[in-house]
Design a protein that fits this description.
Layout (H helix, E strand, L loop, with lengths): L1 H26 L2 H4 L17 E4 L4 E3 L7 E7 L6 H16 L5 E7 L7 H9 L11 E5 L2 H10 L4 E6 L2 E6 L3 E4 L5 E5 L6 H11 L4
Parallel strand pairs: 3-4, 4-5
Antiparallel strand pairs: 1-2, 1-5, 3-8, 6-7, 8-9
């Protein structure tokens, strides 16, 4: 058991080092990276209604976020690079914010056929996140037609390329900050968001209705 815990801790440290290196390389090339972008959002735009299932099998709808703000990302559990990066950054952000009880971290799968509960728990476990103890961490899946409708509503494109050992999935990167009233406060088409803009967006999202 101790050996398994040591291997897990070593894996987390290795992934953390890798992601830190990627962030450093990004910030070291301003001509290439530029300023981390954000997208202006019309004040009346709200996140689409949906009815999906959380990783646990429980139904989860937009109404489940009532009275809470949320950061919503489109991702998939079996991804080995970009998707672990966003969970890593979200966990760091949660720590910086002091683990606010009224903020949800919502992952929506772009690979509903393969993202089962075991794969999702494995994804969270990489970052020592236990969604059974901390239900603020949500990973949604569901029928493909419902997922596809939600992807279309948010201009998310998904390209799947068959590979020898599985499927390579390329998808639009989008991080959305959603307020207590379901209004989309800010959108970031990057995992390396501008910290000040993210802070302003979260402050607005967490304001009482």
């Amino acid at each position: 058991m101790q050996s398994r815990d040591r291997r897990r801790a070593a894996g987390v440290l290795l992934l953390s080092a890798l992601l830190t290196t990627v962030s450093w390389l990004w910030s070291s090339y301003p001509a290439m990276a530029g300023e981390p972008p954000s997208r202006d959002v019309e004040s009346h735009r709200y996140f689409s209604e949906f009815a999906l299932n959380n990783w646990s099998g429980d139904e989860f709808t937009l109404d489940s976020l009532r009275d809470a703000a949320a950061i919503i990302v489109f991702t998939y559990a079996k991804c080995v690079f970009g998707c672990p990066m966003i969970t890593f950054y979200l966990k760091n952000l949660d720590q910086e914010l002091g683990h606010p009880e009224d903020l949800r971290f919502v992952h929506i799968s772009v690979n509903p056929q393969l993202d089962n509960a075991q794969e999702i728990q494995k994804h969270f476990l990489q970052f020592e996140i236990d969604p059974t103890k901390d239900p603020r961490w949500v990973f949604l899946n569901g029928p493909e037609d419902r997922i596809e409708a939600l992807l279309a509503d948010n201009d998310i494109t998904v390209k799947k390329t068959p590979m020898k050992d599985g499927v390579l999935i390329d998808h639009t990167i989008l991080v959305q900050v959603v307020g207590r009233d379901s209004r989309i406060v800010a959108e970031f088409p990057t995992y390396l968001w501008d910290e000040e803009r993210m802070a302003d967006a979260l402050q607005a999202a967490l304001e009482p209705r």
